[in-house]
Amino acid sequence: MAQLSDDCFAFGGPMMSVDDAVAIIAARVTAVQDIETVDLRHADGRILAAGISAPLPLPPFTNSAVDGYAVRHGDLPLTAEQAFPVTGRVQAGASAQGPVEPGHAVRIFTGAPMPEGADTVFMQEDVRIDEAGKVVLPGGLKAGANVRPAGEDIAAGTRALPAGQRLRPQDVALGAAFGLMHIEVRRRIRVAVFSTGNELVAPGAPRAAAQLYDSNRFMMMAMLARLGCDVSDLGILPDNRASLAAALKKVAGAHDLILTTGGVSTGEEDHVKAGVEDVGTLVLWRMAIKPGRPVAMGIIDGTPFIGLPGNPVASFVTFAYVVRPTVLALAGALQQNPMPMPVRAAFTYRKKAGRREYVRATLRRAADDMLEAVKFPREGAGLLSSLVQTDGLVELGEGITRVEPGQTVGFLGYASLT
Ligand code: AMP
Ligand code: MG
Prior knowledge:
418 residues, alpha/beta, Molybdenum Cofactor Biosythetic Enzyme, Chain A, Molybdopterin biosynthesis moea protein, domain 2, 5-stranded mixed beta barrel, 19% helix, binds adenosine monophosphate, binds magnesium ion
């Protein structure tokens, strides 16, 4: 397990901005070092352990980009059309029988290697065959037209994928194009997940009148799975300091991160803070974001601990801004801070300067084809429907105090936050 120092999450200020949080996490969390080799088929979503340089050029050989006729450009009259005898035929996967003869054309197909001497290809749609079977080539085609030179995509030896890349389907395709069957990735990080609260019961269990089903744990586990973590589902802990402390201590050694929800406010029945302090160290990060509540950051036997607030929306948002960067840092991923996309606000909003606010919103296409963000009508931090019925979050920066309809705002789709 990555061992972190007890004070690694210490923070001097009274309120922490999202940027401060991300910077502290990136600077102080160390990545797991273990490397494993995975079959390319299982590489999607994994974190590349070392950069990959191109072992061969792409494309590997110069080839035709179209079905047509390959010629030497130097043989062509620049403007007039001219008939060339067709000698030879090269299909994709075959090699040319010989060099193209001066003044001749070679029938060629997409992906077939260029015959020696040929440097330009006429598309079959742009030519005709005359009565003598010659191909009539129009004038005016540029040298090198419709040819894909070896290495035009990626030259041999160039760095094609950086260490820490969280592999996407297109990255996997690149590995395959290089002929790689296996990829070295960091091992998955192991995350222990607990919910806390006497009022919670697991779905499927009998529910007393004053109880509700635990939803946060399932949300967190789903988000962690998307981030490529191995998740240990450790169920629900009661609001009891001793049992919290014992449970957290027990799992620290075998996990890279411990995650809880609930019990981190400052009420008398919020025992997570005290429970963590019994077995490790803890700081409360008061984040300058809304929705959001204090996030508890701690270290238990060298393993980072994050305690999220219990309200589902606060828990979702703080997951996106604190847990997600921590998971990526532990996993050895290059940080990819989600980039808000500009959309037009279709709502009015007032906010305090100095904190960042996230407005749950649905996108719609306006009459002029621009995307507009429509604010969810209610704001409660407990409303799961507000997450379910929207497409993402409008991010309103610290400097903003008001939003008027028509103003451009930044929008983050949920897919970019999970
Ligand atoms: P807490 O942060 O423990 O004070 O909880 C704040 C609110 O979130 C309370 O109304 C809790 O019942 C609710 N809550 C806490 N944990 C969960 C959970 N795992 N699933 C759904 N709601 C929760
Ligand atoms: Mg609670």
